[in-house]
UniProtKB/TrEMBL annotation, chain B:
Keywords: Monooxygenase, Oxidoreductase. One of its GO terms (molecular function) is monooxygenase activity. It comes from Labedella populi. Residues 20-301 form the Luciferase-like domain. This is LLM class flavin-dependent oxidoreductase. The lineage of its organism: Bacteria, Bacillati, Actinomycetota, Actinomycetes, Micrococcales. GO terms for cellular component: cytosol.
Amino acid sequence: MAELRRLELVSSTHEKQESVVQTIAVLGVGRVGSAVARTALAAGYDTRVAGSGAAEDIELLAEIVIPGARAMTATDAVSDADLVVVAVPLSKYRSVDASMLAGKTVVDAMNYWPPVDGQIADFEEDIASTSEVVSRYFSGSRVVKTLNHIGYHELEDDGAPSGTAGRRALAIASDDEAAAAAVQDVLDRFGFDTVYAGPLATGRAFEPGTAIFNGAFSQNDLLRELELNLHPTH
Amino acid sequence: MELGAYSFGDTQLNPDGSLRSTAEAIKNLFDAIVLADSAGLDYFAVGEHHTLEMPASSPGSMIAAAAGATKQIRLGSGVSVISTDDPVRVFQQFATADAVSGGRVEITAGRGSSVESYPLFGYNLSDYERLFEEKLELLMRVNEQEQVTWSGTTRSPLQDLTVVPRPVDGSLPLWVGTGGSAPSSVRAGRLGLPISYGIIGGAPHRFAALSDLYRRTAEQAGHAGANIKVSVAALGLVAPTKQEALERFYPGWRNMHTQLGKLRGWPAPDDNAYLAQAHAPGAYYVGDPDDVAQRIVHLHGFMGHMRHFLQMDIGGLPQEHFLESLTLLATEVKPRVERLIRIEG
Amino acid sequence: MHEASPLGMELGVYSFGDTQRNADGTLRATAEAIANLHEAIVLADAVGLDYFGVGEHHTVDMPASSPGAMVAAAAGATQQIRLGSSVTVLSTDDPVRVFQQFATADAISGGRVEITAGRGSSVESYPLFGYELSDHDQLYAEKLDLLMTLNSGERTSWCGSVRSGIDDLVVVPRPVQGSLPIWLGTGGSAPSTVRAGRLGLPVSYGIIGGIPARFGRLADLYRATAQRSGHHGPNIKVSAGTFGLIAPTKKDAVDRFYPGWRNLQLLMTQRRHWPEPERARYEEQTHAPFAYYVGDPDDVAERIIDLYRHLGHMRHFFQMDLGGLPHEHFLEAITLLGTEVKPRVQRLIDRL
């Protein structure tokens, strides 16, 4: 297994990315989607939201619950977005049109939680991490797993400016390092440090039931937890 | 001998014969159970129907309400139409009532006297046998065990699942209710369940052959003891005089027969038939306390039943007559029955 | 800021009938838990509380499996308190049976019964009644539609995919109130809020963590959606169910609530892999602006009013008896809520 790298190593190269994220589309306006969208707005991103239901309902919802976000159809929301956050219930991930997201950087903020949401065959029958299963569906996209292991309340409460002592850190997993770097930059503006755990398979280390999922960690502590989880012999 | 009443919560009528509100009928039924308890009756049962004339659609809720407002009376269903219900839900409702009552609740499972519940809950009457058989089996199982495993064709299976709350005394008394068929008697005997006969016409002592069959089947199946027992449910009304009882019961009886006759193609109600049934050896326990007591004890000589309970409030009987009859049953009929049984004994 | 209703704020309690514990931590009988719950409702009525809700669960530690039967039992033993479910897990039940049970209780209570339909906080009912959790959305939408249809008139015709059709059949008894108040219960998602507003149903928020004042924007969304859908009047209203316990002093309250809270968290740790409970995190939640209304009468009254400024809710009701709270502490908290918190809340509202 690849050595863990602190994201500082990756971030030193991210200036070379052709584009910096400016526009974020959030698919799903439930508790997680709403909180992510509000956080994105607060961080200064141009933010679009889309959800199931009548367009006029979603517009009113955005106006009141996510003021500043633009409600549109999923297709319009993602068309010129630099980053797409998928925050629908995991049981509905196949309701998101994968072709629409081709070529996009896609954050998988979903969790598989059978005691609450029921068993889903896709994930019961596959031993891969949930984000690997999801990324096979979004096969044309650069899937990044993160934002799944922070409570929607905490997302808006725990953020702090870069450099704040003990700033909370979030884990990131992706098979695409450039995509991971872009997301790291976004999360920094959201108010969080980050640790790049490695490929999507390492996302297992912060799925429900893990110490990382259940806790809140500074960057150093998160790195230690990931080491413990992914390299238990060390 | 325990004495009691059962009711379908029949809706009262306005002077012009139109129905009053179903909510009022439910409240009246509740008041009647509370009175039966304070007067000293032993048992009250509520039967399930789904019509404007008989709106007691949820015996579980009626019994739960009564459980919270009574002190000593035993409470049950007469009957729970389990074929069209979920035995797990039925058990949960009655076990909840049992806990609230401090252990005074029973269930009687049966076919019931009406069929409205089949279309309402999406069942086919032609599946009745299988529905009843399987659901009774499941009801018995949830009654005995907190962790239940069961599978069948009439409901989704249960794989080691918890069913709560658990009854105060470990399990609820569970009866089989029947209009008096031999196969039902055999079934109850085989299962070792107590049996409740609903006798709504004919000469009640003829049911003695069935109760003998029940007891013999139970014995052959190896069931003995306190659970092998018989109760009788019959139409009846008690009033200060026989004449008053006959006059009070008649309009409601006539309403019910007219109404059911329309649904089931019965002949028009026959006044002579009414009077014949209302005197020994007929099936209507309509009379003064002496008359009703003597006829109950007479039947006891044939059937050896341990509980006799009467359906009084049919077809919109005025509530005050219902309440007076319950009071007389407890305060006048009951001591007479006890005395007569002692003498007979 | 919203208009105070002329009646002020209703106060109440909700419970899952949590089973009490023996000194060694083992569970006592479920039947005892049910009898205790009944006693608590009767007391709540006697001390003048406005509402009691019973929530459906199916476990040995939360044995109130039949809110309909509990509410019926309470209907026959109380004088003035309104009674409801918090919540009825409608997705796995038959709306016809649910309606019949609550309408029966309504008749007995003289018109004091309500239904709150929601997803609920647990999932045991799915395997127990043969449903798939993944069908939840459709089950809920269709069954809510059927329940509303049953509630609107004596004869019902309905067809859908999650239950057999009903062809012009009578469903009785009919409620004293004409129809039963039906609430939509939600943990606070925007789409559920929109649904309630669109349907013109009152909404009940279960606020079990975070900062309750944040639900203000959901309440705004609810009212705006209702208005746009043409719904207004007394049916457009908001209630809040939260954790809470009242004791003579804040310290008593915090100490009394903690063991039960911890027991519940441990259960969730076991069943849903929640993090291990921590006392410090707990204590933080018991102070403003957080979600546990655990305190003395002054503290709780002030925090209810603070939430009212954001939510404009007309009813605030507390889940007190978590995880085997000793019954006497439950009863004392109910008494204090009725006799001490209620007048304080009224005074504070009058001043607004």
